[in-house]
Every structure is written in structure tokens, then in C-alpha cells.
Write a structure and sequence with these properties.
Number of strands: 3
Helix content: 55-70%
Number of helices: 6
Distance between the termini: 15 Å
Strand order of the largest sheet: 1-3-2
Order of helices and strands: HHHHEHHEE
């Protein structure tokens, strides 16, 4: 909201990424070969995984909280969130991505009573309340 230039650059970055994703995916074997030749390593899972739908979920939550006149929070179970986007387990990579999204969109997850919680430790059937910090 405060930095229009950053907003425009972010939108252009993601537009390029979505349009060029098939080309980037075709380059993956070349990247693997180059890293093997230089005897370096990289996290293949973070390159291959696609959490774009989950990103849109957190963006949607932020917009609903900021611009809805009804509520200043969104409540749902962690199990529902994972199921909605096709995940069955909480992998380390998925949890890291959720935490990055929450930091990026300035969201806080709390349990009933406003008790702050950590996504990694909360039970799947606990009701989470998301609020904008």
C-alpha cells in the first residue's frame, strides 16, 4: 500500500514466473548437471515444489481482513487449510512456506483466547484465528 514501485515490480516478477514456468521447468536438468559438475548442491525440493495456490490463500486472508466490514479475523482448522490445497501431511518445506507467507502478509495465527501459537506445534484439529499484525 505504501510502496507502489515495489508492488509493480512484485506483480511483474510473478507474471513472468507464471508465464515462463514451463520453460524454467525444462531447464531443471541443466541446472542439476551444472551443480553436479561444480560439486555444489542445492535444495531440489524448493525448486520443484509449487505453493502458488497457498500463496493466494494467505493473500486472500489479508485482503478479507483488511477490507471486509464484517470481521477483522479469519478462523479455520489447520486440517481444513491443508485439505483445501491438497496436502495430507505437514512437511518441513510446507511449514516453512506457510511461515514465510505469514511473515510476508503480516499475519498472526492464534488459538482460542488470543494465545499465540506456532504452526509446527499446533494440532491439526485446533481452530486457528488469523489476524493482521
Amino acid at each position: 500500500r505504501r510502496n507502489q514501485k515495489k508492488f509493480i515490480l512484485d506483480v511483474r516478477y510473478w507474471l513472468n514466473y507464471f508465464y515462463e514456468k514451463p520453460i524454467l521447468d525444462k531447464e531443471f536438468p541443466a541446472i542439476q548437471k551444472d551443480t553436479a559438475d561444480t560439486k555444489s548442491s542445492f535444495d531440489e525440493e524448493s525448486y520443484v515444489s509449487d505453493f502458488s495456490n497457498l500463496d493466494l490463500f494467505f493473500k486472500n486472508i489479508r485482503l478479507r481482513i483488511l477490507y471486509s466490514t464484517e470481521k477483522d479475523y479469519v478462523r479455520l482448522k489447520l486440517r481444513t487449510l491443508l485439505k483445501e490445497y491438497g496436502y495430507q501431511r505437514r512437511s518441513k518445506l510446507l511449514l516453512e512456506h506457510i511461515n514465510r507467507c505469514m511473515l510476508f502478509y503480516h499475519l498472526e495465527a492464534t488459538l482460542r483466547g488470543g494465545v499465540s501459537c506456532c504452526i509446527e506445534e499446533v494440532g491439526l484439529d485446533k481452530m486457528l484465528t488469523f489476524r493482521v499484525l
